[in-house]
Amino acid sequence: MKRTGMVRHIDSLGRIVLPSEMRKVLNIKEEQLLEIFIEDQTIMLKRYDADKSCLLTGQVTKYNKSYGNGKVMLSPEGAERLLVELKQLLKEEATR
User: Fold this and answer.
1) pLDDT of 52-77, one tens digit each?
2) Is the pLDDT of residue 28 over 90?
3) If 0-12 CB within 10 Å is exposed, 13-18 middle and 19+ buried, where does residue 81 land?
4) Is 44 found in the same domain as 1?
5) 59 and 25, same structural domain?
6) Are residues 54 and 72 in the same domain?
7) The domain containing residue 10 runs over which residues?
8) Where in the numbering of this chain does the SpoVT-AbrB domain appear (predicted)?
9) Is 33 found in the same domain as 57?
10) DSSP code string of 35-91
C-alpha cells in the first residue's frame, strides 16, 4: 500500500472527504459506489462496478468474464463453482 501523505478529519456524521486530485487519479466520479474492506486496523475503499461483479461470488476482478451474450458475469472462482455444479448435475441426470 502506498502512502499519500494526506490526512483527513472525520466529521460528526462519520464522513471523510476524498481530495479531488485523488478522485481524478483513481477515476472516481460523483455518486460512484465504493466497496469498503476492513482488515485488522486498515480500512480500504475500492470502486464498485456492479455491472462487472460476479453473479455467484459478487467479486469484481480484472479477470471477470461475460457469458451468455453479456447477461452473466463470472469471476474465475464463480466460473469454477458453476462448472463443478454443472458437472454434478450432468452426472446425476446421466444416472437417472
Assistant:
1) 889 999 888 889 999 999 889 999 99
2) no
3) middle
4) yes
5) no
6) yes
7) 1-48
8) 5-50
9) no
10) EEEEETTEEEEEE--GGGS-TTT----TT-EEETTTTEEE-HHHHHHHHHHHHHHHH
Handedness of CA 25, 50, 3, 7 (dihedral sign): positive
Q: Does one domain contain both 55 and 82?
A: yes
As for how many domains the chain has, the answer is 2
**Cα–Cα distance measured from residue 50 to residue 83, given in angstroms and rounded to the nearest whole number:** 23
d(CA 59, CA 66): 13
Residues 2 and 31 in one domain: yes
**What DSSP designation does 34 have?**
E
Q: For 74-95, what is each residue's pLDDT tens digit?
A: 999 999 999 999 999 999 999 8
- Cell representation of residue 92: 446425476
Taking the C-alpha atoms of residue 58 and residue 73, their distance in angstroms, rounded to an integer, is 9
Q: Could you tell me if 61 and 75 are in contact, meaning their C-beta atoms sit under 8 angstroms apart? A: yes
3-state secondary structure (DSSP) of residue 28: coil
